[in-house]
Design brief:
The protein has 384 residues and is α/β, with parallel strands linked by helices. The chain has 2 domains: 130 residues, Aspartate Aminotransferase, domain 1; 239 residues, Aspartate Aminotransferase, domain 2, CATH 3.40.640. The strands form 3 sheets. The protein has a 7-stranded mixed beta sheet, with helices on both faces. The longest helix has 22 residues.
């Protein structure tokens, strides 16, 4: 969001900026979902709902989890929040005491460590590099667990790397977790519908159902249905945890917006063609941006298996000098050079716990992708 604010400020100054920062689809919410929201307003869905969400929405979520993920949850095991972030934050608030540890593999979504720290916990950052496909291994997990470990956070498909854990990789992690009953699992699956090149999304509970009594499944509709501004996410998990989340919501935000909840019922229960079309569009963009970025000297990019980001290494540019004589010492310098020189906004890998990389969102048009990459190539060619 800070990067987007910088882009907006430059645009206000009259600069033409191609924005690869923001993690939201560039197409509108599907019309049938919008119409469901309008109908809900007309029908008077403008009042408070239950703190944990309307019965209709929680039933639709339970049906979705069974239909798409083979996960069985009762309505009382589901809590609706103001975006998935709301559920994650409240889960940490409900469970963390001072000094409790939360294992977070790199590269991580930028909010995880801060939300842990804000709630008195200690983020335990575990480095995962290209050699493991930016994925946590069983050996690294085992080494990181202590008696104070409270949670493991898994994000698959991953933001920012696009890494997708296979069933066998998840099984190995789950076998470690089975030996450590004090460790709960938070599995953030918000990008589940965007997987490519034969990759498949698998939830940890699909390979190790025995972890159900200490697993919180996080999901939402922002990405799959282009509903970022509607602000609806949800969590599914053990009843005691979900009751605690409900109490926190009661004393903080009261409930999610009623009209948004009604629209999400239509999203989850109606035709899923819009999701398939979005995934196909992102697959096409993924191929194009990977090819264009890999053609730029000094930048190396793995093709992501999921989400809508690439996470290229810019280590080949470090040590070079800009036309103004400034040496590029790190990924933040490269990010700022691309913004100021090329008019292309990206996000530094340092913010995701992975220095030497940049995150590009390809949730934008092919025209913008091609123009942006051409401008990046010209900026790189100007380095000395």
């Amino acid at each position: 969001m800070a990067a987007k604010a910088r882009v907006d400020a430059l645009r206000a100054e009259g600069r033409s900026i191609i924005d690869f920062t923001i993690g939201e689809p560039d197409f509108p919410t599907p019309q049938h979902i919008v119409e469901a929201g309008i109908a809900a307003l007309s029908a008077g869905h403008t009042r408070y709902t239950a703190a944990t969400g309307t019965p209709a929405l929680r039933r639709a979520i339970a049906d979705k989890l069974q239909r798409e993920n083979s996960l069985s949850y009762g309505v009382d095991q589901i809590v609706v929040g103001i975006g998935a972030k709301h559920i994650i934050y409240n889960a940490f608030a409900a469970t963390l005491n001072e000094g409790d540890e939360v294992i977070i593999p790199t590269p991580f979504w930028v909010s995880y460590p801060d939300m842990v720290a804000l709630n008195g916990g200690t983020p335990v950052i575990v480095g995962c590099d290209e050699s493991s496909g930016f994925k946590l291994t069983a050996a690294a997990l085992e080494k990181s667990i202590t008696p104070r470990t409270r949670w493991l956070v898994l994000n698959t498909p991953n933001n920012p790397s696009g890494a997708v854990y296979t069933a066998s990789e998840l099984k190995a992690l789950c076998e470690v977790l089975m030996r450590h009953p004090q460790v709960w699992v938070m599995t953030d699956e918000i990008y589940e519908h965007f997987v490519y090149a034969g990759a498949q999304h698998v939830s940890p509970l699909q390979v190790q159902p025995e972890l159900a009594d200490r697993t919180l499944v996080i999901n939402g509709v922002s990405k799959a249905y282009a509903m970022t501004g509607w602000r609806i996410g949800y969590g599914a998990g053990p009843r005691p945890l979900m009751q605690a989340l409900g109490l926190l919501i009661t004393q903080s935000t009261t409930c999610a917006t009623g009209v948004s909840q009604a629209a999400v019922v239509a999203a989850l229960s109606g035709s899923q063609q819009c999701v398939a079309e979005g995934a196909a569009l992102f697959a096409q963009r993924r191929e194009r941006i990977v090819a264009l970025v890999n053609a730029i000297d000094g930048i190396r990019c793995l093709a992501p298996d999921g989400a809508f980001y690439i996470f290229p290494s810019v280590q080949g540019l470090l040590g070079k000098s800009t036309p103004q004589g400034k040496q590029l010492a790190n990924d933040v310098d490269v990010m700022m050079y691309f913004l100021e020189q090329a008019g292309v906004a990206t996000i530094d890998g340092t913010s995701y716990g992975q220095p030497g990389y940049l995150r590009f969102s390809f949730a934008t048009s092919l025209e913008q992708i091609e123009q942006g990459c051409a401008q990046l190539a010209a900026a790189v060619a100007a380095l000395k």
